[in-house]
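Researcher: Batch entry, complex prediction.
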Amino acid sequence: AQKITQTQPGMFVQEKEAVTLDCTYDTSDPSYGLFWYKQPSSGEMIFLIYQGSYDQQNATEGRYSLNFQKARKSANLVISASQLGDSAMYFCAMREHSLGELSFGAGTTVTVRA
Amino acid sequence: DTAVSQTPKYLVTQMGNDKSIKCEQNLGHDTMYWYKQDSKKFLKIMFSYNNKELIINETVPNRFSPKSPDKAHLNLHINSLELGDSAVYFCASSQEENTEAFFGQGTRLTVV
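Model: Structure tokens for the complex:
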């Protein structure tokens, strides 16, 4: 079964606007971490933000924030004030305490328009 | 200094050949991984390895084998390459479960 679901294959956003990327996850492990990565066209994987399952507050890193709704098992990424350089593929991932590796969603391609 | 480095960045080879991709991390991390990213950009774990345990994704053919000469290196050996092995392979490392994994720049393997 798919552990991470990203339902938006692609999104367009106007420069300077905010965009929300959806991510839902499935686990029975009470301890887990949620991650977002950015993959630009150059191909590298860039870590953006992390949320732990026991964290009480939503994570923020600069223009990135994670809207963590534990009961809904969702971990949406919000990018505020979009820039042209934000155009990339974005992956949601989860690491369960019982497993070491990251499980990735299918990704969402974001295109920022000038 | 590059945290996780892979070589080569591009690899074009013929079917049936044996090839290796090298990975080194200078972060002092205990755990290293290999991921495969297919043509649809889906990332799938192949192996995770620390100095105590190798965990192999059961769907990975046994033509693929990780070799770790020391804690800082996890190389990927592929025997009898097939067309379907064409993909981007990422090496990664992490220290603890609550920290991010750092990725190498990827190796684009093309089997012709």
